[in-house]
Amino acid sequence: MPISAKNYRGRFAPSPTGSLHFGSLVAAVGSYLQANHQKGEWLLRIDDIDPPREQKGAADDILRTLEGFGFEWDDTVLYQSNRLERYQDAVHDLLKEQHAYPCSCSRQSIFKKTGQTKGEIIYPGFCRNGPLENRTQASDYSVRLRCSSDAIEFDDAIQGRQVFNLEKLSGDFILQRRDGYFSYHLASAIDDAEQQITEVVRGADLLSCTPSQLHVQHMLNLSSPYYCHLPIAVNEKGQKLSKQSHAKALDIKNSVVLLYKTLKFLGQMPPIELMKANQEEIWDWAMNHWQLDLIPKK
Fold first, then answer.
1. Tens of pLDDT, residues 132-176
2. How crowded is residue 37: how many other Cβ atoms within 10 Å of its Cβ?
3. Closest Cα to residue 24, out of 78, 72, 63?
4. In sequence order, what are the residues at sequence separation of 6 or more whose Cβ sits closer than 8 angstroms to the Cβ of residue 51?
5. Distance CA 99, CA 220 (A)
6. If you ran DSSP here, which 8-state letter would residue 228 be given?
7. Contact 257, 223 (CB under 8 A)
């Protein structure tokens, strides 16, 4: 991968919607070891831009858990909630350049107009030439980014060549919701570029988010990172580990065993003796034996 080790910057960017779980640990370990292997920096960002979904005290709990597992990050922690003015300026610029537009459609009205009954909305651009419904306040509108049928292509370090068509994947997607909150795509795209992240290492559940974020960066004339999407940890029912699937919170007291299981999940083949090692020893082994090529796609 054409990334200079001298300039490498990775990151881990959890949302404070609950405690970290095994799936979170997979993403943290993968991004941390990849940054270490490249002799680069590893940054920590808290993606706290959706207050209705956030859990009180979760951000501090995430930091304590990462410290308890032996992670060490470079620079100060970036909180997206401190970056709202930057995101608003970006939305303003995109509207001014007509790359984005106000939209009066609600989720229910889109379902009604398109006949969709479930799943992710593929927005057909009802408001592209002006809002379908006249509303009295700016807060009655969301803001959507225009997409085209042009293919968005990128090479993923694990998943290989990826080709997406945003028109078919999502249609024009939301940058700012009607309640004023900014989208994950917008905030993540801006921060990855402005923190000079060279490679995003995260779970493959976010693979389909990548073309939207690349499109945001392109429309704002920002640089784009390389990508590396790790296999997704699932429960016995095949569901992705998450708060919604009642994933068990990480136990700091069991950090060595959990780190061992994470390395094994990532295909690194740690020796069984590491199960009885201390935390420093297991990190030392991991840093000296990290091989991206061993990670399975799924």
1. 777 656 568 999 999 988 999 999 999 999 999 999 999 999 999
2. 18
3. 63
4. 181
5. 9
6. E
7. no
Write the CB contacts of 40 (distance below 8 Å, at least 6 apart in sequence). 5, 6, 7, 8, 9, 10, 198
Question: Over the stretch 38-71, which tens digit does the pLDDT of each residue have?
Answer: 999 999 999 999 999 999 999 999 999 999 999 9
Tell me which amino acid residue 260 is: Y
- The one-letter amino acid code at 215 reads H
Cα(69)–Cα(54) distance, integer angstroms: 23
Specify the pTM: 0.92
Q: Are strands 142-145 and 173-176 parallel, antiparallel or unpaired?
A: antiparallel
Strand, helix or coil at 58? helix
Distance CA 175, CA 254 (A): 40
CA 234, 236, 238, 240 torsion-angle sign:
negative
Structural domains in the chain, sorted by start: 7-83+187-294 (3.40.50.620), 85-184 (3.90.800.10)
- What is the structure's pLDDT at 2? 41
> How many other C-beta atoms are found inside a 10 Å radius of the C-beta of residue 120?
11
Helix/strand/coil for 104: coil
Contact between residue 45 and residue 11 where contact means Cβ atoms under 8 Å apart: yes
